[in-house]
Amino acid sequence: MKKFLRYMAAVFFIFGMVGLTGSGIIGSGECFAAEMGPTLSMGTPLVKMSKKSEVVIMGTGFKPGQELFVLFTTPDGFQSDVGYALKPAPKADKTGSFACTWSAGRYVSKELIKAGAAKIEVTDTEFNPLAHSVIFFVEEKKDKKK
Which residues contact 94 (CB under 8 A, 6 or more apart)? Predict the structure, then answer.
C-alpha cells in the first residue's frame, strides 16, 4: 500500500508540475525574440584597419520610427557618438529594423581605433542603452615586397 501511495504522489507531483509550467505560473510559457528587446548585429564583424574602413551595422526589435544613436567604445573606455559618419542616419523603419554603414577610416587615421575588440552600442535619443554588439579591428598586413 505504501508503494502505491508513493507512486500516486509521484504521478500527481509530475503532472502538477507539468500543469503549472504549461499554465505560465512556473516558467514563462512561450518566449518570443521580440520580448527580449532589440538586437544588434554587425554586418562587418571583422574590420581591417585602413583609411577606407567601413562597418555595416544592423538592428531589429526597435520601436517603429524610433531615432537612434550609435556609440563606439574602445577597450580602454574611449566612447564616441559616430552618428556623423553613418549613412543613412539610423532610424527604425516601420518594422523596427535599421541598417547603416559607418565610415570608420577617420578613426583609424587619427589612431583612435586600436587592433582588438570594441563595443558598438545603440541608444535612444536620451542615450539610454538599447542594444550592443562587439566588433573586431585587425591590422592590415604589410607587403614585404620591395
Answer: 64, 65
57-103: per-residue pLDDT in tens? 999 999 999 999 999 998 788 899 999 999 999 999 999 999 999 99
DSSP label of 110? T
Among 92, 53, 35, 45, smallest CA distance to 69 is for 92
Look at the block and give the residue holding cell 562587418: 44
- Check residue 46 and give its pLDDT: 86
Q: Which secondary-structure segment (H or E) carries 70?
A: strand 69-73
Q: What pTM, to 2 d.p., does this model score?
A: 0.70
19 torsion bin: left (phi>0), alpha (psi -120 to 50), beta (else) = alpha
